[in-house]
Specification:
Elements: H1 4-7, H2 12-15, E1 28-37, E2 42-52, E3 65-76, E4 81-93, E5 95-96, E6 99-100, E7 111-123, E8 128-142, E9 147-165, E10 170-181, E11 185-188
Antiparallel strand pairs: 1-2, 2-3, 3-4, 4-7, 5-6, 7-8, 8-9, 9-10, 9-11
Length: 191
């Protein structure tokens, strides 16, 4: 999956290495990203990825599937500064925010998060670049086991990064924080 880090040409080898928490347990991940120039300074970016776990040896992740679609508008504020704003949707089967469960703690087939994102990328020189990201999500989860549903899940993610490019080396520093708010309603079944 393409992340905001790689969209900003930030740490190309690290941003995809090992994937994200959502994709770490997926055996097959495929996707695409398209950029459409809408003028000299505005670009429309659309992306979609999908993945699934095919590993039958791990009962917890064998049925997990996830896909995400995003669309954003990137505006070159200056030659060095780009501001992007976008929306997206994350859908998961048998998982929630990358976590999987089984038996009594299994998640349902229709878990969805609607996302909004602001992203700022700044290229200070040819050798130095930085980014800031804020993403907010809201969604619901259905369950097959003891947890029947979780409504009103809210997530926030923030990240900052700085990267120095050398002729034969690259140094990067990132700081990220993810917060999951208490849902508005939870429904559990007791046996």
């Amino acid at each position: 999956p393409v992340s905001p880090l790689s969209e900003a040409d930030f740490m190309p080898m690290l941003s995809l290495q090992g994937g994200s928490k959502l994709t770490r347990n997926l055996d097959v991940v495929s996707g695409l990203t398209n950029r459409f120039a809408l003028g000299d300074q505005i670009t429309l970016v659309a992306g979609h990825w999908t993945g699934q776990a095919d590993d039958a040896h791990h009962a917890l992740i064998s049925d997990y599937r996830a896909n995400r679609s995003d669309i954003s508008l990137a505006i070159d504020m200056t030659d060095h500064l780009t501001l992007s704003a976008g929306i997206g949707v994350l859908q998961e089967e048998r998982g929630l925010l990358g976590a999987q469960g089984a038996a009594a703690l299994s998640f349902g087939d229709d878990n969805q998060m609607n996302l909004g994102r602001l992203h700022l990328a700044y290229r200070m020189e040819n050798r130095l670049s930085a980014f800031a990201l804020y993403e907010q999500g809201r969604g619901d989860m259905s369950g097959d086991g003891l947890i029947q549903s979780i409504d009103g899940i809210r997530t926030e993610a923030m990240a900052l990064g700085l990267q120095l490019h050398g002729e034969h080396q690259q140094v990067a520093l990132t700081l990220s924080l993810i917060h999951i708010s208490e849902p508005t309603r939870q429904e559990a079944t007791s046996y």
